[in-house]
Specification:
34% of the residues lie in helices and 14% in strands. It has an eleven-stranded mixed β-sheet with strand order 8-7-6-5-4-3-2-1-9-10-11. The chain is built from twelve helices and eleven strands. The chain has a single domain (6-372), classed as TIM Barrel (Alpha-Beta Barrel), CATH 3.20.20.70. It is α/β, with parallel strands linked by helices and 377 residues long. Helix 8 runs parallel beside helix 9 (272-283). The chain binds iron/sulfur cluster (SF4).
Length: 377
């Protein structure tokens, strides 16, 4: 196996002070929410069936041909202010053909245009699936919610529909850790995401320690989304979320960038404990809180149908198709006219907040009119 070493990083370094996925940046730059980010679903195949999978209901055993890549590239090219792309699945690297014929050309396109790129992967396949991305990819985003191979076995195959031998799961877990170490050593920026849920909320410091040992450059923390497979899992109360985040902040490595996203806490809430937590997150070294890109500066394109969604979670129906329309136009329709967007489309600049994620609003704030609220500072 050859591990490639990038000699130079030609673009601005991603850092706590530069996160082009955050919709607040484009909102401030253009004065309104603007399409700067396109996520593409390149497969619905996956070698795992995680308990919490947010796209679990879309996973399949076989899938049809993709839309022609030139059409996707043309639609990306037309996005006037494109700054980032994300590639997602399933496991995007499940088929070698997808890596060679879709993923690498998309990443190369992004690099040539100076657009930043991310791929979501479980990193459990052969190193050869990931190595070809080294020269082009900005962020390898993985999920990591475990303190041991047994955790991985229990969580990662919960929806397989048949028993998966422990030895097979342990092999995959070891491969993921080894891939993470080798790719990190070769210069890849790996961002490991942990979801806060009923399993992980008391184990976050230990998970964080393992993520550091794997060489990851960033630890992302999000609440579990109650979508698809996760819809039937127990939902944590807001007090448990708060306690879990304080515990993690108390025990983390302050040198490692921590990115929190889609949090269910807002500066307009009456609860002093919640606002204190927001202040703490804002003042901690190397900690950022990202506003949710979905529907704010990003859309998702299904590369089998051309349908355009607000997120890869299928809960909200498609509102356009790239066979017929430009992405900027589809986004404009969503932004200006879609009733769901109107519900959460608020913005308090002093609190660096542009409103809740739609699923978070639905889980914890049913009936709340965010547009009539203001941050309490
Ligand atoms: S932007 Fe919306 S959610 Fe955020 S503090 Fe203001 S009113 Fe609350």
């Amino acid at each position: 196996m050859t591990v490639l070493h990038r000699s130079e990083w030609p673009l601005k370094e991603l850092s706590p002070s530069y996160d082009p996925w955050d919709p607040l940046q484009s909102l401030r730059q253009y004065g309104k929410h603007t399409l700067t980010s396109v996520e593409m679903t390149v497969t619905n195949l996956c070698n795992m069936r995680c308990e919490h999978c947010a796209v679990g209901d879309s996973l399949v055993m076989r899938e049809p041909d993709m839309i022609p890549l030139p059409l996707m590239l043309k639609r990306l090219d037309e996005v006037e202010n494109l700054k980032t792309i994300s590639i997602t699945g399933g496991e995007p690297t499940f088929r070698k053909k997808t890596v060679e014929e879709t993923i690498i050309p998309l990443l190369r396109y992004a690099r040539e245009r100076g657009v930043r790129s991310q791929i979501n992967s479980n990193l459990t396949l052969d190193m050869g699936r990931y190595e070809p991305m080294l020269p082009y990819l900005d962020v390898m985003h993985i999920s990591f919610n475990y303190t041991s191979p047994d955790d991985f076995h229990e969580v990662g195959f919960a929806n397989s529909g048949h028993p998966v031998p422990r030895e097979a799961a342990v092999r995959m877990y070891d491969t993921m850790i080894e891939n993470s170490r080798k790719l990190s050593d070769a210069g890849m920026f790996i961002s490991a995401e942990t979801m806060i849920n009923y399993r992980t909320h008391r184990k976050l410091p230990e998970i964080h320690r393992l993520i550091r040992e794997m060489g990851c450059k960033r630890h992302e923390v999000h609440p579990m989304y109650a979508a698809d497979f996760a819809a039937s899992l127990p939902v944590l109360g807001l007090d448990d979320f708060r306690a879990a985040i304080h515990d993690l902040l108390d025990h983390r490595d302050p040198e490692l960038w921590m990115l929190f996203g889609t949090l269910p806490f807002f500066s307009c809430n009456q609860s002093k404990e919640e606002r204190d937590l927001i202040s703490r997150l804002r003042s901690e070294q190397n900690v950022t809180v990202r506003n949710d890109p979905d529907g704010r500066n990003r859309v998702n394109v299904n590369m089998f149908t051309g349908d355009v969604f607000v997120t890869d979670f299928a809960a909200i129906p498609a509102f356009g198709n790239i066979h017929e329309h430009k992405l900027d136009n589809i986004f404009g329709e969503w932004s200006n006219n879609h009733p769901l967007n109107q519900q959460v489309n608020c913005h308090c600049d002093a609190a660096a907040c542009c409103g809740p994620n739609l699923l978070v609003a639905d889980m914890y704030y049913k009936g709340t009119d965010f547009k009539s609220r203001r941050a309490i500072l």
